[in-house]
Design goal:
Blueprint: H1 23-34, E1 40-41, E2 48-54, E3 62-68, E4 74-80, E5 89-92, H2 94-102, H3 118-121
Antiparallel strand pairs: 1-2, 2-3, 3-4, 4-5
Helix pairs in contact: 1-2
Length: 123
Amino acid sequence: MNTASEPDPRAAETTMDLTGLTAYTVGIVHLAEAKGLRPAWGQPRGHTRRIMLNAVGPHGAFGSIVIGRTSGKVLRAEVIHGNDAKRPCHAKGTNAVRDLLSCMRRSTCQPGCAAPSSADCQR
């Protein structure tokens, strides 16, 4: 059940071509959009495709979700919580990736933000 502060991932509209993805993967893409991560296709590599994540502003989260090229399943993800993050967060497997994205807060950083850190940006 969503709270008033959490967006409903099912309500998100996507501009990405989601052909060939599993229903679970599509749900993860919608969750990323609802969290403000602006998912977009990256370059395919080997047997995988990447969905690049990039929130607005320098303190917004960024990273990628790796999808099996033929299976359409989520394999893993890496998310870095802004340019001043100490280390990236990793998740392996569909459930872990969903949990990682579910725990994220939508970024309040704006384009052109000049705050020295993400803590200062959110004030």
